[in-house]
Amino acid sequence: MKENIFSGVQPSGIPTIANYIGAMKAFVDLQDQYNATYCIVNQHAITVPQDPDTLRLRTKQLAALYIAIGLDPKKSTIFVQSDVPAHAQAGWLITCLMGLGELERMTQFKDKSAKKQAVNAGLLCYPALMTGDIILHRAKYVPVGDDQKQHLELARNFVDKFNSRFGDGLLIKPEGIFPTSGKRVMSLQNPSQKMSKSDSNHKAFVSMLDEPKVIIKKVKSAMTDSIGQVHYDKENQPAIANLLEIYASLSGKAIDRIVEDYHDTGYGAFKTDLADLIVSIIEPIQTRYNQLMESDDLYDILQDGAVKANQVANQTLASMEKSLGIAYH
Ligand code: AQP
Question: Is 173 noted as a catalytic residue in this protein?
Fold first, then answer.
């Protein structure tokens, strides 16, 4: 029998090439090998303020992008988190079992809360909800970018603690699947910050829905350095190293080979070819995306996905509630 994999993306903006390289590209590659479930985690998105109309639109856009990148609803279960109430229910149970200190130590919470004046309690409890997402679908593997490693480790520790208290094998302990290149794609404007879809500086990322001419402009204006030679040196040339990783991930070429190709050309030719490469991958995705946004198929796919996801999630939730004494009959 195939093992389960689970992952999700927040509709907190339009996905960027970082989300694609770090996670979404692998979703497609893995759907044949595994019993795959992919979620649009809209309840995670509200851990920071969202405009309701925009959130509705972003949810639909993300569903369309999932399918446009190549997810096949016949192979993968695709659903919206809020269509499966077990996620919020399990999230609460897990919140009550996780230590406050564990949650406060999470880097993402520290980074995001430092940038905001008002922080909601959901931002702190985000990893508990994420743990629930993974364990409800009995996932053995979770394809994610490097920024989610710490949250995944928390989920793994939670499973150990839950199973040792309530019974071995009750919950499945998940393992991460990380890409070889582009685990952590950095901002085009600041190579010490990760690329994020909610970055207020739109030049910092390439969105999956950026027009080709915008992509070319953003890549050409990406930060570089004064060294002027293409090397893979994360310490001294972090911006170029980042562009090389994006290139390697999208082309499938080894970084050494790319460095050889551009070693004597300077940054201009390298950036032009990188921009063309990104456009060549994104353009066909956008064509399929536009067709999907105009059809009604999307809602049927999400409804079918929710039916399947509810079945699996409700079973796991029932066993957790039984263990905890919440199910009293
Ligand atoms: N910079 C990144 N490099 C590689 N992978 C990344 N991911 C996110 N940023 C990078 C991976 O994309 C998947 C979906 O991410 P998410 O939507 O769940 O939330 P996030 O990690 O917080 O991503 P963003 O783009 O930074 O969103 P906002 O701006 O809303 O916080 C995950 O697998 C993640 O690892």
Answer: no
Helix, strand, coil shares, percent, the chain, to 5? 60, 10, 35
The helix-helix angle for 266-294 and 52-68 (nearest 10°) equals: 100
Residue 35's beta-bridge partner residues?
A: 4
Out of 177, 196, 200, 243, mutate this one to test ligand 1's pocket (max ligand atoms within 8 Å of CB): namely 196
Could you tell me what percent of the chain has a pLDDT over 90? 93
Q: How many CA atoms lie within 13 A of 254 on its CB side?
A: 3
Q: What is the pTM of this model?
A: 0.95
Contacts with 192 (C-beta within 8 Å, 6 or more apart), sequence order: 186, 238
Domains, in order of start, for the chain = 4-182+296-324 (3.40.50.620)
> Known binder of ligand: residue 323?
no
- Can you tell me the distance from the alpha carbon of 291 to that of 313, in angstroms, rounded to the nearest whole number? 31
pLDDT tens digits for 275-313?
999 999 999 999 999 999 998 899 999 999 999 999 999
Q: Which atom of ligand 1 is nearest to the CA of 147?
A: 35
Question: pLDDT tens digits for 213-227?
Answer: 999 999 999 999 999
The pLDDT tens digits for 97-156 are: 999 999 999 999 998 888 877 899 999 999 999 999 999 999 999 999 999 999 999 999
Ligand 1 neighbours (beta carbon < 6 A) = 9-10, 12-13, 16, 18-19, 21-23, 144-145, 147-148, 182, 184-185, 194-198
